[in-house]
Amino acid sequence: MVRVRFAPSPTGYLHIGSARTALFNWLYARHNKGAFILRIEDTDKERSKPEFLEEILASLKWLFMTWDGELTFQSQRFDIYKKYADMLVEKGLAYLEGPAIIFKVEKSKKVAFEDMIRGRVEFSTDDIKDQVLMKSDGTPTYNFACVVDDHEMQITHVIRGDDHISNTPKQVMLYEALGLGLPKFAHIPMILSKDGGRMSKRHGATSIFEYKNMGFLPEALVNYLSLMGWAPGNDVEILPIEEIVKLFDVKDVNKTGAIFDMDKLSWINGQYIKNMEINALTDKVEVFLKDRNIIQDNFDRMKLIEIIKIYKERMRILEDFIGAYRIFFSDELEYDEKAVEKHLKKPNSKEIINRCKSAIEADAKFDKVSIEEAYRKLADELKIKAAELIHPTRVAISGKTVGAGLFDMMELLGREKVLKRLAKFC
Ligand code: GLU
Questions:
Q1: Which of 211, 298, 374, 414 would give a disulfide with 359, using CB separation of 3.0 to 4.6 Å?
Q2: What number does the ligand 1 atom closest to the CA of 163 have?
Q3: pLDDT digits (tens, 9 = 90+) for 357-378
Q4: How far is CA 171 from the centre of its chain?
Q5: Residues having CB within 6 Å of any atom of ligand 1
């Protein structure tokens, strides 16, 4: 049976790159009907914090990555590591340096392993120093604890970021010294920023919970992360998680770094928003707005549904609904000053707005079809393009140049509010 593990250190929040590593492990486990195990690498007592662990677990759950069995904590297993280290001392393969235990590295040898993504990887032991196994404070080093645990937990495939590639020969030597068989290794390429460097704060949000806060949908994030170094083929990009599980194989992961592209992620999120059933989407938006105190329990759900209906084609993240909601429910509009300057401060602006107002007052029905007709007719009369009425109206009633279809917005706002907002500009 396939058994894989994700081994986070609870010294920070779950990063985009680590989430992708977790996801590839999880997908591989689920595809092969194997086990996905979580091992908490909390050997650094100073830097490990319970709140980071909580956050990592919550992020994994939010991204649908459920794990099998109990969590394993390395901090509770120091005596096990010590036992293995003593074994190596007894065999004459490790030596003591005070209370520390050090592994002797024989020079001029080759250490090699077969990587599922990169093929054969070879290192010379001339480049590897003697390895500390147990530090003088009784804590194990990462490479040693990792080998002991991967063995004890019967891990069949070690799938991790290729920033660990230089650790793997050290681990391979330890497996051999302990007389243990090797797991299979797969080193997945790093996620890089658009400028080719490692992803950092400078390139935008790096932790999963920041994406959650911005209103990314977990389905979309999982979908996007799965495309970071892997592709389902046939240019398909939007696919549900069950489909990804069916198609995913770690050996199909690319060797080269994957570029994190926020625009692409937002586009994918927009596709999920667009395709979501209206009630399910409204539930999500409701929670999102309530969490931010923008709406309270007595909010008008029917009206919210109407807003979502006219905006959902163009929204990329849930955060975008905040602005949309305010346009309809707040009397204090925020105006994009540049847009006001461009569309409402022309020599003939006042006159145009006045003519729009009259057309609206004369439109008995005031629904999106009748308003559009009235606007087209007015444009003909004034011998101008309809756009010259549409842009200023949009800015006057919403404060912005972008948004839902203008006539949809006008119908939903209602005649009275539209007239009041237009009156500010004439
Ligand atoms: N705790 C290590 C890390 O966060 C785990 C590496 C591994 O998967 O072996 O990078």
A1: 374
A2: 10
A3: 999 999 999 999 999 999 999 9
A4: 31
A5: 7-9, 41, 146, 160, 164
The alpha-helical segments, DSSP class H, found in 293-367 are 301-311, 320-329, 337-344, 349-362
Q: Where are the beta strands (DSSP E) in 93-166?
A: 94-97, 100-103, 110-115, 119-124, 131-134, 157-161
Query: Which of 74, 115, 146, 149 for mutating ligand 1's site (highest number of atoms within 8 Å of CB)?
Result: 146
Rounded Cα distance between 403 and 196, Å, is: 34
Whether the pLDDT of residue 204 is over 80: the answer is no
Domain ranges of the chain: 3-188, 202-324, 337-423
Burial grade of 88 (CB within 10 A; 0-12, 13-18, 19 or more): buried
Across-strand partners of 187? 160
d(CA 217, CA 319): 11
Q: Is 201 a catalytic residue?
A: yes
Mutate to test the pocket of ligand 1, among 142, 155, 172 (most ligand atoms within 8 A of CB): 142
The answer regarding whether domain 3-188 maps to CATH 3.20.20.100 reads: no
Q: Domain 202-324 falls in which CATH fold? A: Glutamyl-tRNA Synthetase; domain 2 (1.10.1160)
Statement: the pTM of the whole predicted model exceeds 0.85: yes
Class of domain 337-423: mainly alpha
